[in-house]
Write a structure and sequence with these properties.
- The complex is a heterodimer.
- By secondary structure, chain A is an alpha+beta fold.
- Helices cover 32% and strands 30% of the residues of chain A.
- Chain A is built from five helices and seven strands.
- In chain A, strand 4 and strand 5 form a beta hairpin.
- The longest helix of chain A is centred in the last third of the chain and has 13 residues.
- Chain A starts with 6 loop residues before the first strand and ends with a helix.
- Chain B is 29% helix and 28% strand.
- Chain B is built from five helices and eleven strands.
- In chain B, a hairpin with a 5-residue loop joins strand 4 and strand 5.
- Chain B is globular, with a radius of gyration of 16 Å.
- Classes of the chains: A alpha+beta, B alpha+beta.
């Protein structure tokens, strides 16, 4: 871990790390925020994950269930973490690019199933993934 | 438009210090339900010391509508004393250029007509004042213990904030330790060169 508190690694390295689902919850206030932005959300909340490494990588994101398709999707907001992704030369990619690349990683990561299981039958009956 | 003042409790009158404690009681205990010690409708803890720095927001009628508390990490502070488990396996910050931001709230007690836009603007103004005050005391970074929802708020403001470790659940609610870097990104996001620099308390 760097002195500034960031854990620095490349997306390729992160993609090979084991992650554990920490918690997922419904957040009614977040649903209101998404609806204010006219996002077609049926339910919304957050999901927290940690790596099985030392130091521990912590990643969190918002999710929502789409009104019509009932799919469990990433919410339109930054992915939050204690990570600064670096490029192949070791340079910081910055907070915005780090968040964007996390979305790329999550697009191929089976996060929906553990989140659905954690949220229980309400979400399972409502969503597909 | 809110006005902000900053100072240590030794700079404040006993009446103002009492009003701050009453406001904190209204917000953190009555409204948010935090399980904090309370006495006669006042919220204070062991970190409210003569050297603690406060930033107070007041509305156009002079009513307190926001507060923030700043503590140097070179003396006892909330994260180090109460929540060191938010930094598993990591050294607790102890540096003259790291200050802790706590008891942050930008909400009026009585003005139910405040819009979401007002709340967002006032939150930004108070955070800017807190960052400005911390900077005056030598801070280059802030660390906070906050509910998880605050992280989303900081990201949306464009402030350079990042979590220091995984969240933990306290009384069923997730909290986490968060760094706020006082850098160009944060200064720009909070428009720190204009709008509402805190006045010194008299």
């Amino acid at each position: 871990m760097s002195a500034d508190g960031y854990i620095r690694l490349s997306l390729a390295t992160l993609s090979n790390l084991p992650f554990t689902h920490l918690a997922s919850e419904i957040d009614p206030d977040f649903l209101v925020e998404l609806k204010t932005q006219t996002v077609a959300a049926y339910a919304a909340g957050f999901s927290e994950w940690i790596s099985d490494t030392t130091p521990t990588i912590s990643i969190g994101w918002g999710w929502f269930i789409h009104n019509r398709s009932r799919r469990l999707l990433l919410a339109p907001e930054a992915i939050r973490s204690n990570v600064m992704l670096i490029d192949s030369h070791g340079y910081d990619l910055g907070t915005a690019t780090t968040s964007h690349l996390f979305r790329t990683w999550l697009a191929a990561y089976d996060w929906q199933r553990p989140v659905s299981n954690a949220l229980g039958t309400f979400v399972i009956s409502a969503c597909q993934f | 438009m809110i006005q902000t003042i900053s100072g240590s409790s030794s700079d404040f009158s006993p009446e103002l210090e009492n009003t701050i404690a009453q406001y904190r009681h209204k917000i953190f205990i009555e409204r948010l339900g935090w399980p904090l010690p309370t006495e006669n409708g006042l919220e204070r803890d062991q970190f409210d010391r003569p050297d603690t720095v406060y930033v107070i927001a007041r509305d156009t009628k002079g009513e307190i509508c926001g507060c923030a508390r700043l503590l140097p990490t070179t003396r006892p502070y909330l994260l180090g004393e109460i929540f060191p488990n938010l930094l598993p396996g990591l050294a607790i910050p102890c540096s003259s250029d790291v200050w802790e931001l706590s008891r942050f709230a930008a909400a009026p007690i009585n003005n139910i007509s405040e819009t979401a836009l007002d709340t967002a603007a006032n939150t930004r103004c108070l955070l800017a004042a807190a960052v400005a005050s911390a900077t005056e005391h030598g801070a280059k970074r802030l660390i906070t213990v906050s509910p998880l929802g605050v992280e989303r708020l900081l990201y949306r403001m464009g402030v350079h904030a990042h979590r220091a470790g995984p969240p933990i659940f306290v009384d069923g609610k997730p909290i986490f330790a968060c760094w706020i870097e006082i850098d160009e990104q944060t200064i720009h996001a909070l428009e720190l060169t204009s709008v509402c620099p805190p006045q010194k308390s008299h």
